[in-house]
Amino acid sequence: MDDITGGILKLTDDLALTRMGYGAMRLTGPGIWGPPRDPAEAVRVLRTVVDLGLLHIDTSDYYGPHVVNDLIREALHPYPSGLRIVTKVGARRGDDKSWFPAMTEPELIEAVYDNLKRLDTEQLDVVNLRMPDTSDPTIPFSVLTALQDEGLIAHLGVSNVTADQLLICRGIAPVVCVQNEYNLVNRRDDDLVDVCAENRIAYVPFFPLGGFSPLQSEILDEVATELGATRQQTALAWLLHRSPTICVIPGTSSLAHLRENVEASGIALTDEQYRRLTGIPH
């Protein structure tokens, strides 16, 4: 794989994502709260993301709150052709930096308008509904569908969902992406990853570089050494190999780390290396 972006995943006639994307959450201060230590560096990171050809940025107005979307607007507006900004609604931040569900109709509508205002756009490319639990997503997803019908949202996705919740949402409106926790050693979503591939839905793992036990780390280290890569790059390469509709969005506030992450899309695993990594206990 020579393409530094990991290739392009075309989901609809008007939506294509680079499989190597960028998660902007880490551009805030500690605890995903407040401004970054070096705002100018954060702007440089975002501009480098686009310079490297990544056209898939993940964000939310509750990161900061508002901080990340303000930085994206400052760094990239007017947005380059083809750039797709994927945002999330369904949560809010308390004054004590806590996280709370925000799933009522007024809260969801307010969140969409906040994202539109902060990103300075008339339409959001993709909005993910982040579910706080396994409850029925019908009502909150229908709220977003109504906003899509108004032209405020182009495409809908879901986050932190079960297979049953995804099925419910797909019965209401098309779903272009699923954003759940998944990585080399957290494989609870194996079946859902395959369902997404079968239905041409992007599966976007958060926490893609999950924690490893000493034994698991040993196997990962062995393969990374063979590849001349870091453990993190190897774990990202495994995800890209795992399914043709997986897109990765590793986040960082460091230019050096950003370039290292992007290089993972150029790593080609052999079938034997892929089997060994897949066999890591999970």
Strand order of the largest sheet: 3-4-5-8-9-10-11
Q: Summarize model confidence as the mean pLDDT.
A: 95
Rg is 18 Å
Structural class assignment: alpha/beta
| Gross morphology | globular
> What is the distance, rounded to the nearest whole angstrom, between the alpha carbons of the first and last residues?
27 Å
Low-confidence stretches: none
Please give a structural write-up.
The protein has 282 residues and is of the alpha/beta class. The protein is 39% helix and 16% strand. The chain has ten helices and eleven strands. The strands form three sheets. It has a seven-stranded parallel sheet with strand order 3-4-5-8-9-10-11, with helices on one face. A two-stranded antiparallel ribbon has the order 1-2. α1 (39-51) crosses α2 (67-76). It is globular.
